[in-house]
Amino acid sequence: MVNDPPSPNELTATSPHAPNPQPSIISPDGSKQQPILADASLLSIRIFTTDAERDGMARQSELGWPHSYPNSVLVTAIGSHWAPGCWQRVVDMVMHTNHKGIHCGLQEMQDRCYRPYDALGTMRNEALMVAQHEGYEWICYLDNDVQPDKGDLLKLLGWPVSIVAPYIVEPGTGTKLHSPHREPNTGLQPVKWTVLSMLLFRVAVFNSWPAGTFWSEPMGADEGFHYQKLWHYGHRVFMDTNVQVPVTGRPHYPLSFLQKTPAEQEEHWQEINRTRRQRPDRRPIDSNDPAAKDGVYMPDLAPGVSPQPVISSTLAEPISQEAQNV
């Protein structure tokens, strides 16, 4: 068990993760010159936009092979059916990560399900392709009902592992949504599986599969199946039990949908479809929050804030009347 990770944005030249300083040569005129070492036959130059990126490169160079944008992470929301208040919590986390010098983006994925759950794998594969195409080192999958603290993503990024999740329990019952069961506040722990509500991957984990093929549709391939695939290729999943993320709703179990009668399945589908037809709830937690514009919480769009983020909007195809009546 490891208690606390080194923050990815707090590394300095004196950090144990930074390269060892090289001795200087004193020239006859008293000036210091950096020696060219005999074994330094290969040199590299990297330019960074923040100190955190530079320090991240130093740490990665010592422990492995560095990324062009160290610790950069794309947060991908599987859908845009936000529970009240969750959009703001996720946006605050993304903005806080950027303010600490780590490049972090947020991408809502289009709901591609025709029936309940039948395209969640496609949506996750699409999210991964976006992260790969845009050159992120990490991808953070999350559902629309998570309520992370603004510093949670930085804490997860601080661990030297390739797959890590926060500690999540079922609301109301307190049921632990992972196995084997771990106690909260016991540091980093290996797990066999955990709920997919929020999960951080190093993008390179998926290099074992052709682009867009890792995630299968959950009507036959649930969490357990995908964690078995990761294990088969040598990947272990960890949980940061110190990072506890509330969720507003109970998890869905796609395979249990098949146990319902046709009438129950239809009722379940209509309930989900009603939510899908609603406008995404991106309102601020406080209705008087000045960071809201046209009912959408977006703090860095407030007047006087610089630089302004680039926000693009992809208009999903509206649900046809035929589909609404299915």
Task: Assign the CATH architecture of the domain at 73-265.
Answer: Alpha-Beta Complex
Q: Could you give the count of β-strands?
A: 13
**CATH superfamily membership of the domain at 73-265:** Spore Coat Polysaccharide Biosynthesis Protein SpsA, Chain A
Question: In CATH's first tier, which class of the domain at 73-265 applies?
Answer: Alpha Beta
Low-confidence stretches: 9-26, 315-326
What does the model show?
The protein is α/β, with parallel strands linked by helices. The protein has a domain at 73-265: Spore Coat Polysaccharide Biosynthesis Protein SpsA, Chain A (Alpha-Beta Complex), CATH 3.90.550.10. Helix content is 25%, strand content 15%. The protein has eight helices and 13 strands. It has helices at 51-63, 86-99, 120-133, 152-157, 223-232, 254-257, 262-276, 321-324, and strands at residues 25-26, 32-33, 73-77, 104-108, 138-142, 163-167, 178-179, 188-191, 193-194, 198-202, 237-244, 292-293, 296-297. The protein is globular and about 70 Å long. Residues 9-26 and 315-326 have low confidence and may be disordered.
